[in-house]
Amino acid sequence: MLTTFLPLQTVLFQFLFLLVAIAIEGYVLNWKLNLGRQTSIQYAISINLFSTIVGWLSFFFIQPHLPPALKAQMISYIFFDHFLNTPAATFNSLMLSLGIIIFFAAFFIKYIGLDLLQFLLQTPVINESIIPVEPLRRNRYLRSRKEDPTRKEISKATVILIANAFSHTAILSLLILRSL
Across the 180 residues of the chain, what is the mean pLDDT of every consecutive 10-residue run? Predict the structure, then answer.
């Protein structure tokens, strides 16, 4: 008899984290790259889903090769929302290092995902900035931002880094609130 276990709480929190990340990163893409709202959200959805899929595939590939103690701790936290016992100081530093690695890996995957998305959609790129696909609305705010001579172009990598930092900060805040 084969038993299955569906970690419903993990799936729901992953869905919540995706919604938060998409909203925040869509706003940052709209704000910094002057993309339309719909295009920004579509790009944010695409790169976040790509990043999440690559992240979970990486976890399932790496997990069998972890030391048994670390594997048990990770699986206990992911499936049951708590560690098996009080983690040692070395475990805390390992988790901090892992968090930093995940942050930069997510940034790299999202950057590659946006390049891939632009290539597939054949969106033109100039000076590492995305050219808006849909026409900008001509309101006073956008015209003043576009005509501002002190306004500097910002690179796509910087925008993705800012968006990733904002979304990971929000997700970390949710994880802290969840553990209280």
Answer: 71 92 94 88 94 92 87 80 71 83 94 89 57 47 53 81 94 85
Residue in the block written with tokens 């001509």: 138
For residue 55, what is the enclosing H or E element? helix 37-62
Instruction: Give the single-character DSSP code of 63.
Output: G
Instruction: Read off the DSSP letter of residue 64.
Output: G
Closest CA to 59 of 74, 46, 81, 79: 74
Tell me what pLDDT residue 85 has: 74
Q: Is the dihedral of CA 156, 158, 161, 163 positive or negative?
A: negative
Asked whether residue 106 is domain-assigned, the answer is yes
Residue-range definition of the domain harbouring residue 137:
12-179
Q: Using CA atoms, how far apart are residues 89 and 47, in angstroms rounded to an integer?
A: 34
Q: Which of 114, 95, 96 is nearest to 106 (CA)?
A: 114
**What distances in angstroms separate CA 96 from CA 90, 99, 103, 173, 177, one per listed residue?**
10, 5, 11, 15, 18
What is the number of structural domains in the chain?
A: 1
Instruction: Determine the 3-state secondary structure of 82 from DSSP.
Output: coil
